[in-house]
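Weekly modeling sync, notes
Attendees: AB, CL, MP (scribe)

Item 1: holo prediction request
CL wants a bound-state model with zinc ion before deciding which constructs to order. AB pointed out that an apo prediction alone won't tell us much about the pocket. Agreed to run with the ligand included and paste results into these notes for async review.

Input as submitted:
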Amino acid sequence: VARHADDTASTAPNPAHREPVLKVALDTPLRRVFDYLPPAGDARHEWSRGIRIRVPFGRRQQVGVLVDVARQSELPQDKLRRALGVIDERPVYDAALLELLHWASDYYQHPLGNVLLGALPTLARAGAADQATITQWAVTADGAAAAVAGEPRRAPRQREMLQRLASGAMDEDELRDAFADWRGAARELMRRGFIASSERSGADPAGPPPAEARAGPPLSAEQQSAVQAVCAALGEYRSFLLRGITGSGKTEVYLHAAAATLRRGRQVLVLVPEIALTPQLVERFAQRFGVAPVVFHSALTDTQRLIAWRQCLSGRARIVLGTRSAVFAPLPAAGLIVIDEEHDPSFKQQQGGFRYSARDLALVRAHRLGIPVLLGSATPSLESLHNVAAGRHVALSLPRRAGGAEPPILRIIDLRGQTLRNRLAGATIEAITRHLAADGQVLVYLNRRGYAPTLVCSACGWIAPCTQCDARMTIHRADDRLRCHHCGAERPLLHQCPQCGYAVKPVGQGTERIEEALIEMFPQAPLVRLDRDMVRNQEDLTNAYARLHSGEARLLVGTQMVTKGHDFPGVTLVVVLNADQGLFSIDYRAAERLAQSLVQVAGRAGRGQRPGEVLIQTEHPEHPMLQTLLRGGYDGFARVALEERRSANWPPFVRLAALRASAPTLPPAIDFLRAARNLGAAIRRADGLDAVSLNGPAPASMARRADRYHAQLLVESASRPDLQRFLAQWVPGVEALPEARRVRFVLDVDPLEVF
Ligand SMILES: [Zn+2]
Ligand SMILES: [Zn+2]
């Protein structure tokens, strides 16, 4: 139908008279932004991207982020709703952070609104101001008269408060200090109309800026050249991989690079994999700079998190130290990013919908900001080693232990044909006895918590199953419970078989059981156990360390927890009880994880002046992975492992994305993934994306977890841009599939685990 030119002219009002259309991202799973008109009466000409705006959404209100301003909307003007109010006078995301979050939304295929709002602390997401407000209380005219008249006569506390306020307004803090339960009295006085509150903006409490760094220990030649390399790159993007064996002094390099960054007036962001590692680094930085860094981690209260965020935003935080989500901290003057223990899987978010890698995002952020980024590890990820080989990271190396301590000696204990006592070989028991007698401390590593991993009936073969998973329940003797480590289900420990009534017994070994055995075998040696059941908070951890550092405890039994960064200078012997768990896993990363754990735990031995000894108990002494590790160390292992990844087409030689689905039964999950695969095949053909391949669907190796059935479809490509192009088209289509309504699903780009 031909249109008259006049039609368009008459329906479109003159743009000059038109109000701007605000494009607002909201915390919804919808992949779009929403159009609003400015709040009533707000006629500003300049709108800054990155400010928060309160808008009506359905019947509720939401806080959104202004991501763009347009001259017109696809909706007719009379269908547009008005925003309710503007929260920020200045953006709470600077342009660079906003771009990073846009990038992350695209790369991880996660809705922009979720990503943007998710980067804010909970209270800021709900609209808390970007600066602290101080509430001030003062008397009203009535209140002043009442104070003169000595009222309220029958409420002495209110009277006293009114008198004080009549002689001058007070902040909430001052009232709190002056009166116990000041709120009750203030409420009454306000009800009587005697006092009123008002708010003004003020600064959150913040310490002084960092002082000039104090001198540290003298640097080794290698530390010196690492520091020089990083400092020479300040002000431009360059990524460094600092390989430092355990105890070689990586932290000193971080501290010196941080000092140089602060001298240039810039901020430093330090990422660590877990909360447990923050106190010791916080202390090192605090000692060096005279001020504690601003910290970000999951154990903060909402208010603490808000305060930390405000300090970052205002630029008053000069050193910011935190776990994964700290990668989104606002840093108006960022100058350096440090990622400690870069190989640690905790940097990848593995739950929820937005499965980002903080390490990878930190690299992107540094690149966009034009600042250096320093990755540190004793056992770098194969990805990072590959990036060094490809010339993307500059390698820095600290090959020697500080103070010239000798590296530990590794030995394999062949368990085959041996009579074991409490799962310990004769040679192991002999070594423990010898080291304890020589006043050393002994660390026993077993990556399995609980008492025993299985409860079995020897009469009928019944094995205590989790009723919600394809898994067995773990025995926890401490509180006589059976627990599933996959879904958290638990029930009382059984003593008789529910099937035949025969007595059941624990099979296999967990940290509780080895603790019991060691106490029985070495009653004179006080023991500390470090695992998630024993250490529930920072205080437990601090107490355990205190017992180890004082030398009071002689034996240490622990899980993965002991492999992470802590220094146990008195440990001279490390025993790895069951290395075999990781040797035959179907996950392509299992060997890398095992090698990292072994090298990390071995690094705990002999960090003082005494050389250490490491014993690895195994039933598979000839396993190639153990052999390469023993002969060639972590480097040798990594070379072989990378070659294997290359020939088997695994990352980092290809890029992966996993579409994971779950449902109360298996068929809907498989049907959905099959429909997703068919859709993908059509996109591949239409767009010539032949390099992208779709593998599956297949049920997960543990298909039933927490009473749902899990399956996955793997998308693979040698080319990252191709994979990205494919996903951008595929994911919205997948979401719209009718089969999608019957399942829960999530896309995991660069998944750590492929099951
Ligand atoms: Zn039985
Ligand atoms: Zn379970």
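Recorded for review: Residues 38 and 147 are 46 Å apart (CA to CA).
Action items: CL to compare against the apo run; MP to circulate these notes.
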